[in-house]
Amino acid sequence: MQRNSETPPQVPFADIARNLKPYAERLHRVACEIIDRGSFIGGAPVKSFEENLAAWLGLSAVCGVGCATSGLTITMKALGIGSGDQVITTANSAMPTPESISLTGAEVVFCDIEGGGFYNIDPTEIEAKISSRTKALLPVHLYGHPCNLERIRKIAQRHGLHLIEDCAQAQGARYRGRYVGTFGEAGVFSFFPSKNLGGFGDGGAVASADRELIAKVRRIANHGRGSHKYLHEVVGTNSRLDTLQAAMLDLLLPDLDAMNAARRRAAARYRERLAGIDDIVLPGEAEHCEPVYHVYVVVVPDREALIEFLGRRGIATGIHYPRALNLQPAYACLEQGEGAFPKAEYACRHMLSLPMFPTIGNDEIDRVCEAVSEFFK
Ligand SMILES: Cc1ncc(COP(=O)(O)O)c(C=O)c1O
């Protein structure tokens, strides 16, 4: 688009460079130190970040991994999940969630979502899907909103199932005042650059109160190595958090709560300004939950028209996600076509994500809200 003095600046969907600006000098210094040292795998920076993340979560152990996708797969493998087993998860998530299950050899069992401004797995559906082959529950705190952990945990306990939390989009979200990722046997985090604690490439972590589980995860993530470099106790993989990533993430971690608070303030401003519009479903905040708005998702009758309308006014939007997972070609084998998960499918057809990032300005939010209001007039 041609810009002239009358064209207002674009409102980006997210602006990672802007978020990182206050840290740039320190990040450059840390990166240069690592480069000068010439040591890029493991070492003190990884250990420091793992310890700091564990302390921040109030858990005993953390293992840095290459990304959350492999972190989830490795955690399930460490828990003995594999071929012949079933793992229950949501039909509304990013592809990595079910993919991580499939990569263990286990079967994915999808559930519908709650609906009505709540996009997480419906606990009632979980109960109905449990079979003799179910080994684990993999709820996702999608968009930064905690799942109903109380109900899900009770179901896991009642049926003797493993509980692994997919916290890729929700680092720092709280349920009953406690961080997500501390309720199950393991919490898995992503440091993909756009995440709430975003890194500088791919990265992730597995956290647990169970040191033995983390020791198993660490072994699998490092080619099955035990105490000796050339002694491989199990067949593992290569999924380590880079030294450079760990050192730079360590610098951002102390500010994560403040960054999340800024996201929550932005969400509150959206709510205040959009609340009067009948045709828009705003994201809810369930009881006991403190979401961290990884993205700000609204549901509208005609998504494509709104996206186009906002786009013409220089406002960027996203869709998270345009297709329920049961409708992905990769899961056609499950034979759960259109209509199998009505609430997830409806949300996927009608949702869009408005600009959301910690450094978004009030003027930018107001511009988005004015444009949305104008659209619905
Ligand atoms: C809900 C969810 N789970 C898992 C992942 C996988 O994270 P990573 O990119 O670190 O593998 C993502 C990332 O998109 C995600 O959004």
Model description:
The chain has 377 residues and is an alpha/beta fold. The protein has 2 domains: 21-254, 3-Layer(aba) Sandwich (Aspartate Aminotransferase, domain 2), CATH 3.40.640; 256-376, Aspartate Aminotransferase, domain 1 (Alpha-Beta Complex), CATH 3.90.1150.10. The protein is built from 13 helices and 12 strands. It has helices at residues 16-20, 24-37, 44-57, 68-78, 96-102, 123-129, 149-159, 211-221, 243-252, 256-274, 303-312, 342-350, 362-376, and strands at residues 61-65, 86-90, 107-111, 134-138, 162-166, 174-175, 178-179, 186-190, 204-208, 289-290, 296-299, 351-354. The strands form 3 sheets. Strands 1-9-8-5-4-2-3 form a 7-stranded mixed beta sheet, sandwiched between helices. The protein has a 3-stranded antiparallel beta sheet with strand order 7-6-10, with no helix packed on it. Strands 11-12 form a two-stranded antiparallel ribbon. Helix 4 (68-78) runs parallel beside helix 5 (96-102) and helix 4 (68-78) crosses helix 8. The longest helix has 19 residues, at 256-274. The model has no long low-confidence stretch (mean pLDDT 97). The structure holds pyridoxal-5'-phosphate. Residues 67-69, 93-94, 96-97, 140, 166, 168-169, 190, 192, 202, 204 line the site of pyridoxal-5'-phosphate.
